[in-house]
Write a structure and sequence with these properties.
The complex is a heterotrimer.
Chain A (H helix, E strand, L loop, with lengths): L5 H21 L10 H23 L8 H26 L8 H11 L2
Chain B lengths: L22 H5 L4 H29 L10 H20 L2 H15 L7 H23 L13 H5 L4 H28 L12 H33 L12 H35 L6 H14 L15 H29 L8 H24 L1 H7 L3 H31 L5 H28 L13 H31 L50
Helix pairs in contact in B: 2-3, 2-4, 2-5, 2-16, 4-7, 4-8, 4-14, 5-7, 7-8, 8-9, 8-10, 9-11, 9-12, 9-14, 10-11, 11-12, 12-14, 12-15, 14-15, 15-16
Chain C lengths: L3 E2 L2 E2 L7 H36 L1 H8 L4 H27 L2 H31 L2 E2 L3 E2 L6 H37 L9 H26 L3
Helix pairs in contact in C: 1-5, 1-6, 2-5, 3-4, 3-6, 4-5, 5-6
Classes of the chains: A mainly alpha, B mainly alpha, C mainly alpha.
């Protein structure tokens, strides 16, 4: 069973640390000043996903020949995707009709009065 | 009838039953068959405890006024009936009993992949059950088995925390069983046992296991958050603190809808084993039936919002969930069509397992069709939280699942115990169950349609007749459940010796002696044919 | 039927050691799938409130100790590194190196928990612990309280998983020291490594979600 050489592990670790520095640095960019709050979130999560993929592919041997671990990892992501997508479909469309916008309106009120 | 005299011991050879008589050999058993028996005992216990709560509910509902118990007590009764029946009977039932016993045998293996994990899962199940019983006797829980917030997280004065911890703990038992089955089915199949030759019982348990491992953790976190909110008043689901109660419902139903497929898929697997045997015919459309189990496992995760149509969820989201709910009915319907096609031109015999399978076919279909009624957003606005829904899910869970469980227990009883049960008493009992069931639950469809709400202990006078019919049916149903308990236990001593294959069924489990030896097979068998080659067998009709 | 190869033991339900190893690995991945959904559930809840209470959550995030969080991330990434090296050492049968690396991983894990404890302690002193001591008087009090509820629930669940992982490594290190593993079978090391890497991945997501979304 193939295991990773120390050289590969070291390179991956170095890249992970670089990504850590990058993501901390990116957190200090004043996104709100340019109405780009969501960019900050997207950047942080993209870097996080990259780190996760590196850890999974290299440290956790997800690139090994056996297909089942990859399938299970993929299924976990897909099922998580289902949870997020369908739950968010509720929250993002609640304000479209008066019947359901009660909580979202009270949430907006809370946000507007510090 | 010959006078009752104990039959001679089944055999003098080593079986899993006589390989050690001490309590320790049972409580520390690693043999999957012994662990299955441990589960049988605990699950039967919980079934009757849950049944006791149902009895009290039906007694109260015989009169329109809430006069047997207070409304607070009534809330506790239906809550505890639901929690015990769902988490401590229906979800573990077939997988932990018949599944644990049969999966290695059907695969030609010596045991599951992780026997110690299997034993651990039983202990976890018992621990969760004990905790929940502690909650029951220390004041009960009155939130409904659905634990809706903010009542459960902030306002209820009952033992919510102990209960959610008990259910949380039991969830791990489910996860470990599912994990064990998935790994076993992938790695321990006998030579020649390709995926296309697996018994459909295995396919359905495989699909069940996928749901168990991907769904149960979300229940765990939703209950953990309720517990955290109760203890630390964190306000995650409390509107007064800015929380959204619906968020709990999303997390809860993400598991609890697929959970109903955890409950029914194994029953469908049992029916897929029984029908070919007692029709002496290969299953119609093996591949489609196998894949339909996987389809149910996947699509079952897409529909949870249909429990939340009138909760304040976005109507557009509700439309999506309603549409997806129609999709999930398709693979179930496919199975019903294929079972029916299997029966066509078969040599049908009406032994007890087959009677239960027929009961399943009819009652599951009715329950499933009424599922389409409630999946329609417009209809559900009227029948949500009425007895229509109660009837719908009891038709599937009791008319479907419990009958499949009883059918499976009877089908494999000879293998498990080495004894035959008394056939005529068992057939009578099956009819009692069928009659009692329909008398109990059919009136509830009408009651719900007429507007009687669920979870109420008093109701308008005009609903009394139907309620009395329902309660009368429940008493008959109870008899139907107590009878097998008695005659199956009696058969352990008085039943005829069964022999390895009393039904002349296909399947590797029938190639072993009854009861089987601890290691199942002296040498690993090699499989060269499909699972239901009844047409190749010499025996056209099951004789007894 | 039961063969003992330099300490590794073939269990009776398996035909050969490779089958057992595959089963062990598959079993751990199935377990990690469940953990993904477990943490995913609470992250979903967090994400919903982050959408609706963006300003309040940003305000709250500023009150976390970003530096300590970053140090902890580095510690945990380092511990994944040592685990990867440990698995490699096991595959070569280098016992001393294996034990050393496993112990190093455990120590890094304990260091993480130590830093976390310091953070918790200072947050308690600052009155930011809902349910125990919450004396926050600044803007968006309800939202900040909600944020800190999530912070403590998520990081406590993560820390609990780390405690389990450290305990597992202690056991595995002890077994390694006793010579239980060989290049033919070191499944326990691999499988505990998978678990640890997963716990690291969870933190890789918790860190930005909690500490880095500062507006």
């Amino acid at each position: 069973m193939a295991s990773m050489s120390p050289r590969t592990s070291t390179i991956v670790f170095a890249v992970l640390m670089l990504l850590l520095v990058a993501t901390v640095g990116a957190a200090f960019v004043p996104y709100d000043r340019w109405q780009l709050g969501w960019a900050g979130v997207a950047i942080a999560l993209t870097i996080a996903a990259t780190k996760a993929i590196l850890i999974a592919r290299f440290f956790m041997h997800l690139s090994a020949p056996a297909p089942l671990p990859r399938l299970l990892a993929l299924m976990a992501i897909v099922w998580l995707g289902i949870l997020f997508a369908l739950s968010w479909s509720d929250y993002l469309t609640r304000s479209w009709l008066p019947a359901s916008r009660g909580w979202t309106e009270s949430a907006a009120r809370r946000e507007s009065e510090p | 009838m010959t006078p009752l005299e104990p039959s001679p011991p089944v055999t003098a050879r080593e079986t899993y039953l006589n390989a050690g008589y001490s309590l320790k050999s049972w409580l520390l058993a690693l043999d999957h068959k012994r662990i299955a028996i441990l589960y049988f005992v605990s699950i039967t216990l919980f079934f009757f405890v849950g049944g006791a709560f149902a009895t009290l509910v039906r007694l109260e509902l015989m009169t329109p006024r809430g006069d047997l118990v207070s409304s607070d007590t009534y809330n506790k009764l239906f809550t505890m009936h639901g929690i015990i029946m769902i988490f401590f009977f229906l979800i573990p039932s077939i997988p932990a009993t018949l599944g644990n016993f049969l999966v290695p045998m059907m695969l030609g293996a010596r045991d599951l992949a992780f026997p110690r994990l299997n034993l651990l899962s039983w202990y976890i199940f018992v621990a969760g059950g004990v905790l929940t019983m502690v909650a029951v006797v220390s004041g009960g829980v009155d939130t409904g088995w659905t634990f809706y917030t903010p009542y459960s997280s902030a306002f209820s004065n009952t033992s919510v925390v102990v209960t959610v911890v008990g259910v949380f703990v039991t969830g791990f038992s489910s996860i470990l069983t599912g994990l064990n089955f998935i790994v076993t089915i992938h790695t321990l199949r006998a030579p020649g046992l390709t995926w296309g030759r697996l018994p459909l019982f295995i396919w359905s348990l495989y699909a069940t296991s996928i749901i168990m491992i991907l769904g149960t953790p979300v229940l765990a976190i939703s209950l953990a958050l309720v517990g955290a909110e109760r203890i630390f008043h964190v306000g995650i689901f409390d509107p007064a603190s800015g929380g959204d109660p619906l968020l709990f419902q999303h997390l809860f139903w993400y598991y609890s809808h697929p959970a109903v497929y955890i409950m029914i898929l194994p029953g469908m697997g049992v029916v897929s084993e029984i029908i070919p045997c007692f029709a002496r015919k290969n299953i119609f459309g093996y591949g489609v039936v196998a894949l339909s189990s996987l389809a149910i496992a996947f699509t079952g995760f897409l529909v949870w919002g249909h429990h939340m149509f009138v909760s304040g969820q976005s109507v557009y989201s509700g439309l999506v969930f309603s549409f997806l709910s129609y999709l999930v009915a398709i693979p179930s319907a496919v199975k019903v069509f294929n079972w029916t096609a299997t029966l066509y031109k078969g040599s049908i015999s009406f032994h007890t397992p087959m009677l239960y399978a027929f009961g399943f076919l009819g009652l599951f279909t009715m329950g499933g069709l009424t599922g389409l009624f409630v999946a329609a957003l417009g209809v559900d606005v009227h029948v949500h939280d009425t007895y229509f829904v109660v009837a719908h899910f009891h038709y599937i869970m009791v008319g479907g699942m419990v009958m499949a469980y009883l059918g499976g227990v009877h089908f494999w009883w000879p293998k498990i115990s080495g004894r035959m049960y008394p056939e005529w008493i068992a057939r009578f009992s099956a009819f009692v169950v069928f009659l009692g069931f329909n008398l109990t639950f059919f009136p509830q469809y009408v009651l719900g349609y007429l507007g009687m709400p669920r979870r109420y202990h008093s109701y308008p006078d005009e609903f009394q007749v139907l309620n009395v019919l329902s309660s009368a049916g429940a008493s008959i149903l109870a008899v139907g459940y107590v009878l097998p308990l008695i005659y199956l236990l009696a058969s352990l001593k008085y039943g005829k010796a069964a022999g390895p294959n009393p039904w002349i069924a296909t399947g590797l489990e029938w190639q072993t002696p009854s009861p089987p030896p601890t290691s199942n097979f002296p040498t690993t068998p090699t499989v060269t044919a499909g699972p239901y080659e009844y047409q190749d067998m010499e025996v056209p009709f099951v004789q007894r | 039927m039961c063969s003992v190869e330099r300490g590794a033991q073939l269990q009776h339900q398996f035909d050969d050691i490779e089958q057992q190893r595959q089963a062990d690995t598959l079993g751990m991945w199935a377990f990690l799938a469940t953990e993904t959904l477990f943490f995913g559930g609470v992250i979903l809840a967090f994400s919903v409130y982050r959408l609706y209470y963006t300003k309040g959550f940003i305000e709250a995030a500023h009150r976390l100790h970003l530096g300590l969080g970053a140090i902890n991330t580095a510690i945990l990434l380092g511990s994944s590194f040592t685990v990867a090296l440990a698995v490699h050492a096991a595959s070569l049968g280098k016992k001393k190196r294996l034990v050393g690396l496993l112990l190093a991983t455990g120590i890094l894990g304990l260091a993480f928990l130590g830093v976390k404890f310091c953070e918790y302690w200072s947050e308690y002193r600052e009155g930011l612990v809902p349910g125990l001591r919450f004396t926050y008087e600044g803007p968006f009090p309800a939202q900040v309280r909600l944020f800190f509820s999530f912070y403590f629930v998520m990081t406590a669940l993560h820390a609990a998983h780390m405690v389990v992982g450290i305990a597992i490594f202690a056991v595995v290190a002890f077994q390694a020291w006793r010579g239980r593993y060989s290049p033919e079978y070191y499944s326990s090391v691999e499988v505990s490594g998978l678990y640890w890497h997963f716990v690291d991945i969870v933190w890789v997501f918790l860190f930005p979600l909690l500490y880095l979304l500062r507006g």
